[in-house]
Amino acid sequence: MGLAPVGKYLARAGVAIAIVLIAAQLVPIRLSNPPVTGDIAAPGEAGIALRGACYDCHSNQTGWPWYAQAAPLSWWIARDVEYGRRQVNFSIWNTYYPATRLRKLEWIGRSLKQPDMPPKWYRAMHPGARLTKAQRAALSAWFAGQVAAASATQ
Predict the structure, then answer these.
(1) What pLDDT is recorded for position 3?
(2) Mapping DSSP to helix (H, G, I), strand (E, B) and coil, where does residue 65 land?
(3) 50-76: string of b/e by CB count within 10 Å (b at 16+)?
(4) Closest CA relative to residue 72, chosen from 27, 16, 124, 15
(5) Residue 22: predicted pLDDT
(6) What is the pTM of this model?
(7) What is the C-alpha separation between 42 and 31, in angstroms, rounded?
(8) 74 and 26 in contact (C-beta within 8 Å)?
């Protein structure tokens, strides 16, 4: 007795998917952590929360998980980190012009009021990145102070 037509279709589809996933491993992806040239200096609870929840995507100190080596997840993760670093990169903070730092500080302050930072999919894979209300408040207060200080020097 052979497989029913549906079973043959599913078996062939499974083999095709496996071949595509194996071939995808041959497409190299660059996962890098460029040098830190001017890190932001957040003190105490704000610094701990910033490093725990933000640095994997918004710094050159990304902790690449084991699954970041497996395509197609590696493509998605590398793209998200590259995008996050383009938005704000705490590892090159001191290289930003003062007006750029102010704009980014304001953006971060607004982002902290939204529940989508860090993203839900990231929080699911990294439970330690979930910001508590106290951490979110500490970050918000610290960033608000940084905005006020940056605004005063403009």
Answers:
(1) 60
(2) coil
(3) bebbbbbbbbbebeeeeebeebeebee
(4) 27
(5) 66
(6) 0.79
(7) 26
(8) no
- Using CB atoms within 10 A of its CB, is residue 27 exposed (0-12), middle (13-18) or buried (19+)? exposed
- How many structural domains compose the chain? 1
State both tokens at 84: 């996050």
Distance CA 66, CA 55 (A): 17
Nearest C-alpha neighbor of 109 from the set 58, 154, 143, 69: 143
What domain range is 36 assigned to? 5-153
Cα(118)–Cα(143) distance, rounded to whole angstroms?
Answer: 16
Q: What is the pLDDT of residues 120-139, one digit of tens each?
A: 877 888 888 888 889 989 99
Across the chain, what does the average pLDDT equal?
Answer: 84
